[in-house]
Design a protein that fits this description.
The protein is α/β, with parallel strands linked by helices. Helices cover about 55% and strands about 10% of the residues. The protein has helices spanning about 10-15, 50-55, 60-70, 75-85, 90-105, 105-110, 115-130, 145-165, 175-180, 185-200, 230-255, 270-285, 300-315, 330-340, 350-370, 380-395, 395-400, 415-420, 435-455, 460-475, and strands at about 130-135, 170-175, 260, 290-295, 320-325, 375-380, 405-410, 425-435. α13 links the parallel β4 and β5 (about 320-325). α3 packs antiparallel against α20 (about 460-475) and α15 (about 350-370) runs parallel beside α16. The longest helix has 24 residues, at about 230-255. This is Proline dehydrogenase. It catalyses: L-proline + a quinone = (S)-1-pyrroline-5-carboxylate + a quinol + H(+).
């Protein structure tokens, strides 16, 4: 769940080849106490629409119903994406018309607002329904230091903004490493890290203490030949990137606000993991993870990497926080691997991905129940939610409730979100905010990624429709 733009290098290749210890009381976060679930909450209940959506306004439900039905029509989504990507969209009148329509429909449904004030209203409204927020400003990937410095200020501001909201209403501040380190440098660092994995004697003088980034099954085909060492200019840029992340980490540590690092595509993910783990070693102390990494379970090497990373962190005494997701680059990753003549790094079947997510979820819950660390289970899958709830009760909810956060995208899987919240768990919504033009890449990817899911599953649509029908009957009779 992040704002991602595919790098020019990837596109070129494709074209050429066809919780923790209780946090400080002044700003509680992931470890904030929540109500103990009743015995009846041992299973996840998603049948009673009134119970699920009782705190949601009729206006919100109507908009949700319209957007969900629209996104379930693939031809309509294709048309909308074509309009937003086409040159027609750049013209004055057409652009104004499309932007107005987007602002009132899809943008309002999936985004918190165009500025901090609007986002604050959305966060408070969400908090009133019992859900929390993961705050992310919709900055673009950066390609130079000027852009990185500008983006850093937005991320730092997010920490300040989050502290102004009601206590515990914001669970995490989100950061994109691709926004505070130039993309070309991230690609270079990833190449160098992969080459060192292939050839352990390969020396990287700039490398700081970190945790395992690769496993034996990790894809290394991106780096076909020995990369050249970083130039003096690149080393200087790397030092600046380290300083940006250090500054952000220090601010989050002082504010006791967890910082969650979003995952990206495998071309730059090694460098992102390197930054994440180096930062975690610095800031994660005393059973209190401040810096959280992201594991994408649709990757075949996900579980193996997770096991290696946690084992190394335990040896170093570093409490780790992880967000577990399925992933967002399936088509791109498969095409890129094919362009190099390799099998896709993505699991061969969706069930394999589900199995990997559920296995990693169970493993992480066991770890946090019996030791340090925290886990965010970011899923829209009902079965995964039910399995995680059952596992939490098996382990003893009291052992994990301060260390576990469920998460879904703002505007999606609301039934699951409210069901988990009603079952006594902390639940956050991933809430991007920023000007419509800036957030457009995120909206495009949301439509592209989820149109198949929304078309295939009418679960939320049916429950929303059922609740609207119930309210209509109640108002008439």
């Amino acid at each position: 769940m992040a704002f991602r733009v595919i790098s020019p290098r990837i596109l070129k290749n494709l074209r050429c080849n066809t919780t923790t210890k209780p946090l400080k009381t002044f700003h509680p976060s992931i470890s904030t106490a929540i109500a103990s679930p009743s015995p009846a909450a041992a299973t996840l209940s998603l049948e009673d629409s009134e119970q699920l959506f009782g705190s949601v306004s009729t206006k919100q439900l109507l908009r949700s119903s319209v957007v969900q039905h629209a996104m379930a029509v693939e031809s309509l989504v294709d048309l909308g994406m074509w309009v937003m990507k086409s040159s027609v969209f750049e013209s004055g009148v057409m652009k104004d018309l499309v932007m107005t329509t987007m602002r009132q429909t899809f943008y309002s449904h999936f985004c918190a607002g165009e500025d901090a004030a609007a986002a604050g209203r959305s966060i408070r409204a969400l908090n009133d329904t019992g859900l929390r927020s993961m705050l992310v400003y919709g900055v673009e990937d950066a390609h130079d230091n000027e852009g990185c410095d500008k983006n850093l200020q937005w991320f730092l501001n997010n920490v300040d903004v989050s502290k102004s909201f009601p206590p515990s209403s914001v669970s995490f501040v989100i950061v994109k490493i691709t926004a505070i380190c130039p993309m070309p440098l991230l690609e270079r660092l990833s190449d160098l890290l992969r080459w060192q994995q292939k050839h352990p004697s390969f020396v990287l003088p700039w490398k700081q203490d970190s945790l395992p980034i690769f496993a034996e099954s990790s894809p290394l085909y991106h780096t076909q030949k020995r990369p050249k060492p970083l130039t003096p200019e690149e080393e200087s840029d790397l030092q600046l990137a380290n300083q940006r992340l250090l500054k952000l980490g220090q601010k989050c540590e002082e504010a006791n606000m967890p910082l969650l690092v979003d995952a990206e595509h495998t071309t730059v993910q090694p460098a992102i993991d390197y930054f994440t783990y180096s930062s975690a070693i610095i800031h994660n102390k005393d059973n209190n993870p401040i810096v959280f990494g992201t594991i994408q379970s649709y990757l075949k090497d996900a579980k193996e990497r997770l096991l290696l990373t946690i084992k190394a962190a335990e040896k170093m005494g570093v409490p780790m926080g992880f967000k577990l997701v399925r992933g967002a680059y399936m088509s791109t990753e498969s095409k890129l691997a094919e362009s190099f003549g390799y099998a896709s790094p993505i699991h061969d079947t969706i069930q394999d991905t589900h199995n990997c997510f559920n296995d990693c979820s169970s493993f992480l819950l066991e770890k946090v129940a019996n030791g340090p660390g925290s886990v965010v289970l970011a899923t829209h899958n009902i079965e995964s939610g039910k399995l995680a709830v059952a596992k939490a009760h098996e382990l003893g909810v009291e052992k994990v409730k301060h260390k576990l956060e469920f998460a879904q995208l703002y505007g999606m899987s609301d039934a699951l979100s409210y069901g988990l919240s009603n079952a006594g768990f902390q639940v956050s919504k991933y809430m991007p905010f920023g000007p419509v033009e800036m957030v457009m890449p995120y909206l495009l990817r949301r439509a592209e990624e989820n149109r198949g899911v929304l078309a295939a599953s009418g679960f939320d649509r049916e429950l929303v429709r059922k609740e609207l029908g119930r309210r209509l009957k109640a108002s008439v009779f």
